Amino acid sequence: MTRLTSFCFCWLVSMCCLLVPLQVVAAPITFVTALPVARGEMLVRAQTKLLRATDDDSPGDRDLTVWAVPVIAAYGITGKLALFGVLPVLDKEMEVTTPLGRMKRGDSGIGDLTALARYTVWKKDEPGKTLRLAPFMALKMPTGQDDATDSIGKLPQPLQLGSGSWDYTAGLVLTRQTLARQFDGSLSYTVKTEADGFEFGDEIRFDLSYQYRLWPRRLTSGVVGFVYGVLESTLMWRDNNTVQGIDDPDSGGVTWYLAPGVQYVTRRTVLEMAVQLPVVQNLNGTALKNDFAAIMSFRMNF
Amino acid sequence: MMKIFFIPLVTALVFFTCPAFARVSSLVVEVNGMACPFCAFGVEKRMQHVPGVESVAVDIQAGTARATAGHEGSIQYQDVPRAVKEAGFTAGDMWITAGGRVENNGGNGLILQMKELFIPLTVDDNVLKQRLTAVVGTGRQVVLKGRIRSKEGAWILYPETMEPKKP
Predict the structure, then answer these.
(1) ipTM of the assembly?
(2) Do A242 and A267 meet the contact criterion of CB atoms below 8 Å apart?
(3) Which of A155, A274, B32, B142 is disulfide-compatible with B90, CB 3.0–4.6 A?
(4) Domain extent at residue A71
(5) Measured between CB atoms, does B81 come within 8 Å of chain A?
């Protein structure tokens, strides 16, 4: 059970990163951007994400499937300040071999709510291009259920819909956008807090995204739809989780994902998809490794 | 008591001497920083909040937004840079199409007199300056097209073309 718990801890941390991105305005698929949300205007993004993790060396032979539908709303307070809210709907299921045989455990429902504020501190606007820098802060609130049970008893913390903790993120994003391409880079640090005697390890995340306009090759007047090819990179370091104040050796580590994808962008909508593939998963102990995360997303300007 | 008659009289005179086309009927503004279709929508929305604007068309390639006034409406061009800023971008140069009468502003050059508003004119082209001067005091209505800029808090129109009022 301890190993199972450890695995779940590690997995949940990665899931928090993979399944609840905060970006809604424009180009990157898996993280935030510095592009503006107009004052008084609202954008909504709905994603569907599938995470599979089956690479397990432990006797438990764990097999994890997570479906997540984070709904993200963004509102422009001013041309520089935007607020974001993220509310995920989750369905988590894990198969594991136990002394009683192969078992399925999991839960589904609403997860933890995250609020994020982003402020553009510097920008350089030119005809057809922009360069901007925006720090952001996020607060994850324990709105999801964190004490669900099944026939065996209370679900391990990582299979709960919510972590039960208040978590804080601070970061900085740089965006360069031209008519032909876009580059985003983001660095963030997340402080996790204790809940129910458990604390997820803090996390540092470094994201890069490059988008290249594939179509139309030549622009015409007006506002036409763009098709972008996208390649994103996510490098994450996670500290060990702690259980009752003691470090869990089977949690934390370094992961690096690459996510090729495609976007279709019009003036009111964005349709996008990407597959996040692990390149490096240097995890501690027997943490379960991810196979992939598939992301499909739709955004709308209101 | 005199005010009761005076105010409507002045109002009526203004409207009779400055007909419906004495107005800013369209405007083009450079939107610096706008580089994707999804961003363009925010510009459209904010521009539509500018008084007098009926429709907005954004051109991504040119990096501009064109606003058109409704029938007999006049675009409050002074609010356009703020609208672009509220969309998260930076307003560049702005061009307007404005109709009205060209008048002398005392000894301070020419103005385009619209309804209750006038815009000082700065004309570098001597030929155009002569044409403008020729219509001063005639009551003829003209349509000017040109760049408009804010200089020390005052808006100045730099006309590039002048056309007579179309019937």
Answers:
(1) 0.86
(2) no
(3) B32
(4) 2-301
(5) no
Token reading at A235: 């490098």
Question: What is the rounded end-to-end Cα distance, in angstroms, of chain A?
Answer: 48
Q: What's the pLDDT tens digit per position in A73-108?
A: 999 999 999 999 999 999 999 999 988 889 999 999
Residue pLDDT, tens place only, A59-72: 889 999 999 999 99
Q: Mutate one of B32, B39, B48, B58 to test the A interface: name it (highest A CB count within 10 A).
A: B39
On whether any CB of chain A is under 8 Å from the CB of B30, the answer is yes
Q: State pLDDT tens for residues A167-203.
A: 999 999 999 999 999 999 999 999 999 998 899 999 9
Give residue for tokens 């994201």: A207
The CATH code of the domain that includes A40 is: 2.40.160.40
Contact call for A38 and B45, based on CB within 8 A: yes
Which among B4-18, B48-62, B97-111 has the top mean pLDDT? B48-62
**Total of domains in chain A:** 1
Q: Which residues of B touch A268 (CB under 8 A)?
A: 38, 41
* CA-to-CA dists, residue B163 to A298, B20, B24, B166, angstroms: 48, 16, 14, 8
Residues written for chain B: 167
d(CA A47, CA A294): 10
Spell out the domains of chain B, with CATH numbers in brackets: 24-96 (3.30.70.100), 97-164 (2.40.50.140)
What SS3 class is residue A249?
coil
Average pLDDT rounded to a whole number, residues B71-82: 94
Task: Answer left, alpha or beta for residue A286, where phi above 0 means left and psi between -120 and 50 means alpha.
Answer: alpha
CB atoms within 10 A of CB B1: 5
The answer to whether A222 touches B57, Cβ cutoff 8 Å, is: yes
pLDDT band at residue B12 using 50, 70 and 90 as cut-offs: very low
Cβ–Cβ gap A123/B38 under 8 Å: no
The average pLDDT across B97-123 equals 91
**Residue A23 is which amino acid?**
Q
Q: Please, are residues B145 and B128 in contact by the beta-carbon 8 Å criterion?
A: no
- CB–CB of A51/A68 below 8 Å? yes
